[in-house]
Design goal:
about 15% strand, five-stranded parallel beta sheet, binds adenosine monophosphate, 9 helices, three-stranded antiparallel beta sheet, about 220 residues, alpha/beta
């Protein structure tokens, strides 16, 4: 199964994509995670992306398109994939169509469904500004919604919990504005191809997981 998760930052795409990977073996392709890893490793890709990410802006299309193309061709994606945070612009969506069409498989590949996660803006700001990530294992917590047992310490591995630089409120507002301008038009792009399902994403992780499964037929 080949899925796209669309939705504003903080709408839970990453959490839900990770669940589909764990429970159904679909490969989670998160461009945000790949870029953050590149920044942490100080690679040329990371150095190019860092300034855009810190401001809450998108990195250039050509950079992310290259990343996704390489990932899609990897063996781990054979059982299917969830694109988490890609495409985010019309240019990326068109590039994805071309990659899928020319995919080295009989007759290329097709997107089965694009899932749009829907949460209201104030809830997103509250979710993102309270989010904390483990420096060591990347586990996610939230100061009020899912706090760690010990303040500032990861339950899973004992690592230090930190706030992503782009989860500060001013940067969150910029990320939401970029979503509205560049990414929201993709809902029409996929609706026009009869591929869009809208999922209410304000509930618990389990409720949203059930809604996503129903939307994609899993
Ligand atoms: P995310 O974790 O998905 O919210 O992504 C964090 C940041 O990585 C975004 O604010 C962008 O700067 C960058 N990024 C992630 N995915 C993309 C994409 N598909 N296109 C452009 N920039 C991206």
């Amino acid at each position: 199964m080949h899925l796209i998760f669309l939705g504003p930052p903080g709408s839970g795409k990453g959490t839900q994509a990770a669940l589909l990977e764990e429970r159904f073996g679909l490969c989670q392709i998160s461009t945000g995670d790949i870029l953050r890893q590149a920044v942490a490793d100080g690679t040329p890709l990371g150095n190019e992306a860092k300034a855009c990410m810190d401001r809450g802006d998108l990195v250039p299309d050509r950079v992310v398109i290259g990343i996704v193309e390489e990932k899609l061709k990897g063996a781990e994606c054979r059982k299917g994939f969830v694109l988490d945070g890609f495409p985010r612009t019309t240019g990326q969506a068109e590039a994805l169509d071309a990659i899928m069409r020319d995919f080295p498989a009989p007759d290329g590949l097709r997107i089965d469904r694009a899932v749009a996660f829907q949460v209201d803006e104030e809830a997103l700001v509250a979710r993102l500004s309270g989010r904390r990530t483990c420096e060591a294992c990347q586990a996610m917590f939230h100061l009020t919604l899912s706090p760690p047992r010990v303040d500032g310490v990861c339950d899973r591995c004992g690592g230090r919990l930190v706030q992503r630089p782009d989860d500060r409120e001013d940067v969150i507002r910029q990320r939401l504005a970029v979503y509205e301008e560049s990414t929201r038009p993709l809902l029409d792009y996929y609706a026009g191809r009869d591929l869009l399902s809208r999922v209410p994403a304000g509930g618990t992780v389990d409720e949203v997981h059930a809604a996503v499964k129903a939307a994609v037929g899993l």
